[in-house]
């Protein structure tokens, strides 16, 4: 098993006819992901390397039974595309688009939360990879192999870094989930950790957080109450000065909130081991996995 | 985008938020001219995007044109915690009966706007929250439902505002919420919100942050940007579409992916060094973009060594190596480079660098090792080009 | 408040809904002047709040000023299914490639706005729904979420609109929704929405209904009301704050509470009579208000008898009795009254009426009995005052 | 037992300091209703014949544990007052106010439906009376006595008419519910009939509908599927011409929908007996009750 994406994934790609959208969708397909449809208003009836394109998500779902959406449209249209996917009954929505207005994300979050049957990952995230099964997004799959470590991260490259170090020690992954670096991610650490906790294949969970917000603190509390599997954590941005946005819109220490040390303290207080560098994280994980 | 006080007030004025008469000025003469218009007594306020202006001497009362001239001369050019004062705001100094605090902030944890109101205005809200929690009323707004009159009443009565201004203060909150949504703001803060002896409610200060990602919806707000006043490297980076943040140290940092770059800063600090910048070259950067990044990094005269830490996913390491070589040849840097490349096409990249055989470019195999090396090199000092 | 076509178009124009050039006119000369401005060919349309204008001869094409004069003369003053034409709308007759239908309606069952779009415009939407259901796309909007661009696309593609106008038609739907919410409308209907040979999308007709209860939010919309053109009794009743609807029969009806009055109409019809009006005096009506109601009822010259059917809750029956007596003495009616009073203070009320001993005022104990009596009296005809 | 209001009712009245509000609230109190609070912004601290007035519903609920609200404020403020009562945790809200904008009612309905713990009756309704227990609203209680007939109606006076005829035949009521004549009532026939069906004290249900909308047809379907108790119905406005609003904003036959005969047909088709006049309704009910 894996979480979110796998052999049952039937992927519809919003923005399939765009340069980036087609490039990554075809990459995903080559990896084995079942890419069933594209959505581009006005281009219904065309195809991209054999994948049929539809004008709307409703038409795509009706024709192909797509159950997963990947959003690759420009930021000003992305929130609308996510809402459209939800309206069409798509259960899993992975939004890669970076730069969506924060208020749009707020509306999307609050509309989607009324529908318990839908899950959004992202936006501004690298996607979800279940090694050997399906890749939805832009995660370079070559560095990862199937295994029993679940990874959830606010950062893409940092995930690759950690995943690569684990792979070099011989460990693979159940699923890698990039939840994205935006202020209002559709899925939080808690949401994904809950899925890993329930996934029989996942034996250890790595969470890679960063400064800004309180998602890591919330994860710590959830881990204390609900998670029996070992969790290893990393927090990036420990030395970042307050008031500066560190690349991710969400990575900012504002006033007394969002600081890295407080996140580490919160995690360590509930027994989560926190590595000080990505390398340390991999070492701790390996140590635990080797028992 | 954080707005200077007076630009925030321009935004509020569009929504008819009551304010005291005022004008901005960028020179001493303009300040004097503004003062003649406004009348006395007036307040001269340094326009910088940082708190603590008053303590730093950036806010002064003037009762005469001579005093205006004197204070304007002193304040313009002042360095307030690293922010140079280029602009002033002059405003009629009204008598004030009460100072309240009102704000709408984007609360990430709750995924909802948070409206706050306190009768303890004029100080930092963190301090109010700590010292007078009973005087701070807070309410999360469901963005689909919006902010309704009863929300305003609830906040006003909970905060304990004077009975006779419950309605105008509530109306002010409703307007601030309107600004928050209408302008795609992530912060709209009035501190203090004042009550005059005539029992009028007015915004004495304004702190407004707009969402850069939503600027396409507000083309007019582009004029509110004052990045011209920003650091030259940050301005250059912005022009080139790079995510660059200037820091206080001497080790230049180049990386791809916000998380990895943040992590690189941490690892360098952990090794005893001080980063000079945050720079995320993003995914899929090409050689010329990489060369441009290097130019931005080296534009900071404090930089004594540069660390390249790249994990190639979409970004191809060979492109990065080519960019480094290109930049090196054009810029002829006088500081050493430490390069750690892993991921897509890393083998080819390492070969490119080895073949180029540039002086003072040191490959490293691991992130931690690269950090230790660059810290050591920065300590050794500048090298010959 | 139902708006005449041209007033609905005035509302749409505020939202920049594309329309063909046109002008209103209330006289033949004004129509000719308007035609000179607009140019030919043009369409002259009777402005009445009822469908079927075309079949009734209320819509004509004119190619010359003489034709304008001729048609305007014929149409002004025309009686279209009981509606007298007081105003005309003259509009450039553009070439039309397609006729669509677009509307936002207040769907009570779903408790949500319903947006509808069809490529089969120009006919009644009920007919489209029956004959071409596949060409009618419908979508309920969650009023908290609003109408989003994807909703517009969904409707446009489902209705099968031409590919090249999906975007402008979708934008039109978004604007109609904006009008619906922004003006507190309960209906915004464009039929037909036309596509011109230049592939432009325009509203050729407009049916807009505004919520009277929300007029306090839209003081400007008061000018859209044309109750001056309404029935004189309805106008008088409106001025007095009464709920009055004129009907075709000859039995005047007075009652309290909408449900009871409706029921009274039914019972009268059941007894073989035809009510002349609906009149709800409301709860707690006082004697003078009741007298005013009686005046409105008697103002209709068709009325041959009046039925008072009151169940006193908040309304006190003795007040009603006093009002009837007062009205009787002032108005000296030439038609008989049947009075059935039950509920609060009914005993006192019956005594008041008995003591007054007015000629041609007949008390009845039950609603059904009162209905039978009033129907019989109306058949007998007018009585002396 | 009774439904909606009874011995446990703790009533807070929005608009208690107004002329109408105080008149009816005091009437309700004299009937035995436990009137615990009034709400009028700016008049907190005052009292109306001993009933304390608060500035907000939150303050009123905190101080008095009010569980029921009666809304008596002018139409332009009424929707806000209903939302305030809900926000303050009041479970039962009875809105008497007539003339609330339809769009306001739409917003209120859609906000409240997300909270399963709250029920709105009205607006534009005479209120709810559980004879001998509590009266919340403007129903003249004198005509009703305790008994086992549940009445639900879109019209006030028509309810009194029917209730009075029943009383003259010796039958009383469990609860009388006026759901109001507006286009978007907070509670529908279905909602109230469901409560009567579950109420052990109610043996027979009288529903008094009218032209406009489709609430009666929906009730017919619900009755067929879910209701075992006998239902007797009345529909007012059978002879009303289309396109004319018959006093109630909701009472209008528009196009092919909302006609009275269709409602009668729908009800009779599922075995509901429909009286042609209010008197007939009472006769049928009496006939059934006497078995």
TrEMBL record, chains B, C:
List GO molecular-function terms, semicolon-separated.
Answer: ATP binding; magnesium ion binding; succinate-CoA ligase (ADP-forming) activity
Q: Which residues form the ATP-grasp domain?
A: 9-219
Q: Which GO terms describe its biological process?
A: succinyl-CoA metabolic process; tricarboxylic acid cycle
List cellular component terms (GO). cytosol; succinate-CoA ligase complex
Provide the protein name. Answer: Succinate--CoA ligase [ADP-forming] subunit beta
Keywords for the protein's UniProt record, in alphabetical order: ATP-binding, Ligase, Magnesium, Metal-binding, Nucleotide-binding, Tricarboxylic acid cycle
Entry superkingdom: Bacteria
Name its pathway: Carbohydrate metabolism; tricarboxylic acid cycle; succinate from succinyl-CoA (ligase route): step 1/1
Q: How does it assemble?
A: Heterotetramer of two alpha and two beta subunits.
Whether Chloroplast counts among this entry's keywords is: no
> What SUPFAM superfamilies does its record include?
Glutathione synthetase ATP-binding domain-like, Succinyl-CoA synthetase domains
Function recorded in the entry: Succinyl-CoA synthetase functions in the citric acid cycle (TCA), coupling the hydrolysis of succinyl-CoA to the synthesis of either ATP or GTP and thus represents the only step of substrate-level phosphorylation in the TCA. The beta subunit provides nucleotide specificity of the enzyme and binds the substrate succinate, while the binding sites for coenzyme A and phosphate are found in the alpha subunit.
* Segments forming a coiled coil: none
Q: Which residues bind Mg(2+)?
A: 191, 205
Q: Which residues bind ATP?
A: 45, 52-54, 94, 99
Offer one Pfam family short name for this entry: ATP-grasp_2
Tell me the InterPro entries matching this sequence: ATP-grasp, ATP-grasp_succ-CoA_synth-type, ATP_grasp_subdomain_1, Succ-CoA_synthase_bsu_CS, SUCC_ACL_C, Succ_CoA_ligase-like_bsu, Succinyl-CoA_synth-like
Question: Cofactor(s) for this protein?
Answer: Mg(2+)
Keyword Ligase tagged:
yes
EC top class, in one word? ligase
User: Which positions bind substrate?
Assistant: 256, 313-315
Which Enzyme Commission number(s) are on file for it?
A: 6.2.1.5
Q: Which gene encodes it?
A: sucC
Concerning its family, UniProt says:
Belongs to the succinate/malate CoA ligase beta subunit family.
Q: Which reaction does it catalyse?
A: GTP + succinate + CoA = succinyl-CoA + GDP + phosphate; succinate + ATP + CoA = succinyl-CoA + ADP + phosphate
